[in-house]
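Regression test attached.
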Amino acid sequence: MTHIAVGKRIPRLDGVEKVTGRTQYVADLTLPGMVWGAVLRSPHAHARIRRVNTDRAARMPGVLAVITGRDVREGVLARERVRYQGEAVAAVAAHTREQAEAALRVVEVEYAALPAVMEVREAMRPGAVRIHEASEDPQLPNVCGVVEVKRGDVKAGFAAADRIFEETFETPWTHQGFIEPHASVASAEPGTGRITLWTATQAQFNQRAELAHVLGVPMSRLRVVGMPVGGAFGGKIALCVEAIAAELSRRAGRPVKVVVSRRDDFWATRPCGGSVLELKAGVKADGTLVALEARLLFDTGAYEGAQHSTGAVLLQGPYRVPNLAVKSYAIYTNRPPAGARRALTSPHVHFAIESLMDIMARDLGLDPLDIRLRNALRKGDPVMGGLEAPYSSVEKVLRAAAQAAGWAGRRGEGRRGRGPRVRGWGLAAGHWSIWAGMSSAWVQLNEDGTISVLTGAINLTGTDTSFAQIAAECFGVPVERVTVHQGDTDSSPRNDGTWGSRVLFGVGEAVRRAAEDAKRQLVQALSAELHAPPDRIEVAAGRVSIKGRRRSLSLAEAAQRAGPVAGRAALDDLPFGLAVAAQVAEVEVDRETGRVRVRRLVCAQDVGFAINPMSVEGQIEGAMSQGMGYALSEQYIYDGEGRLLNPDLMDFRLPIAPDHPEVAIRLLEERRDAGPFGAKGVGEPPLVPTAPAIANAVADAVGVRVRRLPITPERLHAELERGG
Amino acid sequence: MSGRPTLELQVNGRVYETAAHPSERLLDVLRERLGLTGAKEGCGTGQCGACTVLLDGRPVTSCLVLAGDAVGREITTIEGLAPPGELHPLQQAFLDHGAVQCGFCTPAMVLTAKALLDENPRPRPEEIARALAGNLCRCTGYRKIVEAIQAAAAGGSQGQRGGRR
């Protein structure tokens, strides 16, 4: 099939603004009369608040408003107790940022420190300090959610197994690593009670709903304007300082800007929670998986955070598991409330299952590729808890990655080397399900033949450019004729957040349907106007033609004659897409220092159809970079009292440019998905296999396996000293 | 007139008189007083590089520079890299190569690249990566940024102005 707009490498439509520095992020926004807000945060991980005195702060120069937990509804500021370091306790609005910060310094808070519980295994032990009073099961204090996924009969499975493997893996707390800290500007209109919020969010409609709740305001009086976002990766979904800014603005009678500092962004936004994953697998001697049992402990932090159920259903990996019993727990600790990170808890559980696959392969004398191919998920196999795989590209993707990497015969090469530096190769695969969610779009044909697309979906990854390509394709016009608007919650149709790799899949399909709807309306209107039956009118290649008549109309002429044409589509029921990626990592390990350098990463991924291959590659390259950080360097480090020791970008180390390896990408375009032109989401799946591929490569290189991420030089060095 | 001393700064070839105190951070003076918000604050401690501007042609993290120390020196921000309506070849290359995603680090990346190419017009990829070591990007994995800079370097002289858009 030939296309004129989709399938092309089109530069991002918002790119010119971005390379010239003209894009306005929230922190760049200045409104008339705007003042600054600042937030006082708890230095304790766990404490009772005995007393808060704001009298002095209120009298400080420039101060317009001071609020504490007593002044606002629940969920905005802490009242009697703080449950993590960085929990917001009070806030100030003042004319300048310096004045606001100076006022914070004289807010008196008297705390009575409580013991902090920082580790999940400790937190769920009977007798542990309770972080919330109410807990259903006294035998499981601090457990706030349990999910079970079961199929077949694991007992029978283990009985039929030739070998049983039991392994425990751990993943760290990490920050999503966006470079733009959280920020919001709120403006409460005195008199009308209307509140407008300009904020860095992935989910403007969800924020509106949450804000309506915590502010006690009807949604119709709230306008959330999702601004250009300087990176989010799951970390900008829940409210951060939005409600605080709004409460300050209500009292100050002025627009209030709150910009979160880097330290506070580490302390108190919603980082990705850690986990302890206990797995037991039964296999036949030929590597066939017959049973998998797991106990998954997800740290949700001080308040209930991101869903752990996703990890429970994804634990099986992209494999056929006939007998499965997974029990997953969400557990409170005195850490920040856990948020999502790219692919939620899929990277956690794939680190476990993909490490285990290699451990089993090695023990059984099988090639890591072969054990995966033997167990590869096939069409109709159960997946995602109780669903049936609509198709499976697992085998194809695995073979494509192996072939691109030159996998055959690579294994163990490193250990044959001399000297401190040895090389290793590792393979891992991963899966992720893609759901359309609530998706809607409007497509309007303008009188000059240009096209305006409006969605309420936050453009993070360049999806607006893809929407332009989709609408252009439907009308057969160049992409330049389409403008895409990401409206706010007042002006645009309702959409779920930009998460789960759903936007291109769901909203992209809504754009396609809305464009088709617009074409249908155009044809209907022209039918009367031109005295031709609708089935003889065709919109194609940017023109409207009538069968049997020589003269065709330009889109501009057609639009003028037809009157208003506004196509719309809303959907939430597409069949889910199954995204699969496989990666091969080549690493060099220094046996003396434990330092790991990634030399090459190869990714093969079934993307359905690449609407914009340049953008798709960008997603994969970025995801693998994040996966490298997850594998090797990123982690929250706390002291025994729950104080974060590395709340900065030097000690919480993101990969930097010189760390990056050679990259090879193979896109598989199966076009079987329900998204536009057979496309599906691509942003999250490629993060999933990176860390286990690197861990497997390290094990291949040095024969020692690290079961706890990140594989820092210290940790690997210690394992090497112990001899694995 | 208050008689308050003014601070004179040369930014993008123009002279600005501001009421800024010399101890203010250069980043704040550029953003808050001159409205040049292309320089971003990602950390405030010189670790992320998003606030990079050029001081006499060399990249500096403007969150760590006091405005007073920039007096008498030529400051270049992203807003001054190309005439209005035009793109510098590096900006064009970043666009064409998909080196821009969220865009928050982009102005700083482009300026760091400009300083590199002024000094080393044909850098090898490793030299480019090393030059970018102080500029964090979380979206791209850096590969397309390095490619864009290579392409801009191959495409012609650095002094040349004007873009294709």
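Expected vs. actual: identical. Chain B touches chain A through 57 residues (CB under 8 Å).
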